[in-house]
Amino acid sequence: MSSLLIESTHTSVQDDLKSNIEKNHPVKSKTVSKKINNIDTDIAISVFADTVFITISQNQKFNTWIKAYKSEGVLLDEPSYQVDVLLGSNQDTLLGIYARQLIENIGLSSRRQLLLSISITDKSKDSFKQILQTIFDNKIW
Amino acid sequence: MESLSISDNIEDSQPHLKIEKFIDIYEDTKLYFMFYIFQNPNSPLFIWVSDQPNLNTLSVSMKIPMEKLPVTSELIDSSFGISKDSSMSLAQRIVIKFKVQTFLSINISQELPEMTHYIEKKIFELLSQYIPK
């Protein structure tokens, strides 16, 4: 009984410490884990002062890293988007489309650039929509 | 027109990725740490250390066959703060110690060897605590 009490107090102190760090840490983060089309999908979002870092992983890896940013148009009103693969496959158009969709959404409310690490095993259209929807439902930028 | 509705086959699952954060003070400088750790012990790590809330450097280090030391490459290059050499050799030492591919973003405004040494010690200490044995 007493050991249970000690354990519970210890857990509560750890929780307090964790919540204190979260409150004072300048980078806000959120993680979401879902089964999407029956595949375990981990999504993490961290918002830095200059960058939104998004991780999408269906196999506990980071695999492809992509950087994307929005440039405001000078002559035309239309903004343009730059998407660069830093590491991994630059042949996979789908990964670039993920980055493009995400930076477009980020660009609506923020001037931050996007850093995306993406490792997906399900490349279906349905999965694409569900992953993006999950990110937009949980956005913290 | 194709429907844009999202089908409802999403359900919560066990998380395989956790984010750990830590704040420390070295002399007058506040240091912020963040770690992305997958459940699989062979999965890569992402580590961010900075004295400001920016992510403007990134290097990757990993062990490859035929090479004795881990190979390191810079993905986002910043001329600001801690030198490229210090950052890349720290990433290498993390790979040697924890034996997994490591993505490191370290961005400290001033390069003091003592502080860099302190940060390395702290990263090793925190990772030993966070990574399940």
Outline of the structure:
With 141 residues, chain A is α+β, with helices and mostly antiparallel strands.
Furnish the topology, listing elements before pairings.
The complex is a heterodimer of chains A (141) and B (133).
Chain A: H1 2-24, E1 28-36, E2 39-47, E3 51-57, E4 64-71, E5 80-87, H2 93-109, E6 113-119, H3 125-137
Parallel strand pairs in A: 3-6
Antiparallel strand pairs in A: 1-2, 2-3, 4-5, 4-6
Chain B: E1 10-12, E2 17-26, E3 29-38, E4 45-50, E5 58-62, E6 71-76, H1 84-98, E7 102-107, H2 113-130
Parallel strand pairs in B: 4-7
Antiparallel strand pairs in B: 2-3, 3-4, 5-6, 5-7
GO biological process, one term (chain A): proteasome assembly
Pfam families (chain A): PAC3
InterPro entries (chain A): Proteasome_assmbl_chp_3, Psm_Assembly_Chaperone
Radius of gyration of chain B: 17 Å
Q: If classified by CATH, what would the architecture of chain A be?
A: 2-Layer Sandwich
Count all strands of chain B and give the number. 7
**In order across it, which strands form the biggest sheet of chain A?**
1-2-3-6-4-5
The outline of chain A comes out as globular
Q: Which H/E pattern describes the elements of chain B?
A: EEEEEEHEH
CATH architecture of chain B: 2-Layer Sandwich
